[in-house]
User: Which sequence fits this backbone?
């Protein structure tokens, strides 16, 4: 069974860079054939898609975050990474690592990590 | 304001049927597949419906999806107290080149 586990700092100061890693286990394909991505959820609010990446490296990002976000996938380590620069309190959220479909337009997330809360506060 | 529009809340009694709507436009629902997710507070969302109408094998057939034009509907039959959760629709939007979510609908089983 595929498992996704997020890790990274839970507390950041404004203007710092958010860096999260997601370790993929139970997947024999080394990530091939699927899009992998990040979705976040501010406390008490709805889901927000951040972006995704194909194992070959092609990426799609939310227009509202595109200038600050980078998603990468290390197939040899089976690790998905998220970097979000210049964070503010508005970036406080639970961040989920996800596996999406085989097409970038699927909007289908069939595996989710447990989520990790990142708080931005001075 | 979300690109996909859902009612903030719906409610129904145990055993009844409820529907949750999700409306969009030709750049998202009208052209691309929609997925539905269930999120019990404090847990990660779970995929209920994909490709507008398909259920993962572990999802009971009490859950169904339908589509008409630029709107989709999630149906939940034989409501159970365990169905109380937030429900989200999602689709690709070609104008934004991004996945967009509805604002979510809170289901209360009275």
Assistant:
């Amino acid at each position: 069974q595929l498992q996704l586990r997020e890790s990274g700092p839970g507390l950041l100061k404004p203007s710092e860079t958010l860096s999260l890693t997601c370790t993929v286990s139970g997947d024999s394909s080394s990530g091939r054939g699927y899009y992998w991505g990040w979705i976040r959820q501010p406390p008490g609010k709805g889901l927000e898609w951040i972006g995704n990446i194909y194992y070959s490296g092609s990426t799609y990002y939310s227009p509202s975050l595109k200038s600050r976000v980078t998603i990468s996938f290390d197939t040899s380590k089976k690790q998905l990474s998220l970097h979000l620069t210049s964070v503010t309190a508005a970036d406080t959220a639970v961040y989920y690592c996800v596996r999406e479909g085989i097409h970038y337009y699927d909007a289908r997330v069939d595996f989710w990590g447990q989520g990790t809360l990142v708080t931005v506060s001075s | 304001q979300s690109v996909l529009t859902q009612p903030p809340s719906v409610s129904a009694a145990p055993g009844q049927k409820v529907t949750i709507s999700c409306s969009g436009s030709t750049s998202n629902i009208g052209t691309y597949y929609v997925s539905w997710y269930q999120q019990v507070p404090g847990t990660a969302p779970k995929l209920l419906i994909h490709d507008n109408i398909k259920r993962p094998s572990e999802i009971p057939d009490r859950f169904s999806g339908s589509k008409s034009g630029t709107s989709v509907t999630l149906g939940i039959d034989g409501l159970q107290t365990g169905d109380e959760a937030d429900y989200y629709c999602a689709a690709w939007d070609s104008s934004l080149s991004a996945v967009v979510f509805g604002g979510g609908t809170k289901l209360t089983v009275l």
Remarks:
- The beta strands of chain B are 9-12, 18-23, 34-39, 46-49, 63-68, 71-76, 85-93, 98-101, 105-109.
- The radius of gyration of chain B is 13 Å.
- The mean pLDDT of chain B is 97.
- Chain B is about 0% helix and 45% strand.
